[in-house]
Amino acid sequence: MNEEITNLKNEVELLKQIVYSFARQDRFTFQKNIEFFGANEIKLIGTNGLKLGTTVTQKIGFFGATPVVAQAGAAGTADATYSANEVTMINNMYTAMRNYGLLVG
User: Fold this and answer.
1) What angle do CA 102, 82, 94 make, to 5 degrees?
2) Distance CA 38, CA 73 (A)
3) Does the first or last residue of the chain, that is N or C, have fewer Cβ atoms within 10 Å of its Cβ?
4) What is this structure's pTM?
5) pLDDT for position 44
6) DSSP string of 10-43?
7) 100 closest CA partner among 60, 50, 43, 72
8) Confidence of residue 98 (pLDDT cuts 50, 70, 90)
9) Partners of 28 in the β-ladder
10) Of 9-13, 44-48, 71-75, 84-88, where does mean pLDDT reach its minimum?
């Protein structure tokens, strides 16, 4: 009987460690992939928004595209006609969207 109680105490302690590794006071930490089945959603409560990546060097990819770091954009504003600067801006946006997997081709 004492051995069973000792085993149960050990199992409870192990479960505490496992739960603590996932749920800390201010966050959930995962060291494996997270998979959603069916028509699930990630719902945000409040108006603070959601941030994916916290620095420009963290990589993000969508729809199976290889993750990339934040893409640098062109400076400048649009004119009434397409200037060289606007063409550069449009090409940079196109490249960034392709790199993030939002455009194909």
Assistant:
1) 15
2) 36
3) C
4) 0.51
5) 85
6) HHHHHHHHHHHHHB-SS-B--SS-----SS----
7) 60
8) confident
9) 23
10) 71-75
- pLDDT one-digit tens code per residue, 6-52: 989 999 999 988 877 766 667 777 788 888 888 888 888 888 888 88
- Please work out, in degrees rounded to the nearest 5, the angle formed at the alpha carbon of residue 75 by the alpha carbons of 72 and 80: 130
Predicted local confidence at residue 11, as pLDDT: 92
Instruction: Give dist(CA 98, CA 105) in Å, integer.
Output: 7
d(CA 70, CA 57): 7
Instruction: Please give the residue that has the higher pLDDT: either 77 or 48.
Output: 48
Distance CA 69, CA 22 (A): 27
Q: Rounded to a whole number, what is the largest CA-CA distance in the chain?
A: 86
Closest CA to 76 of 63, 61, 62, 92: 92
- Sign (positive/negative) of CA torsion 79, 82, 88, 92? positive
CB 96 within 8 A of CB 71: yes
Q: Which two tokens mark 8?
A: 């149960």
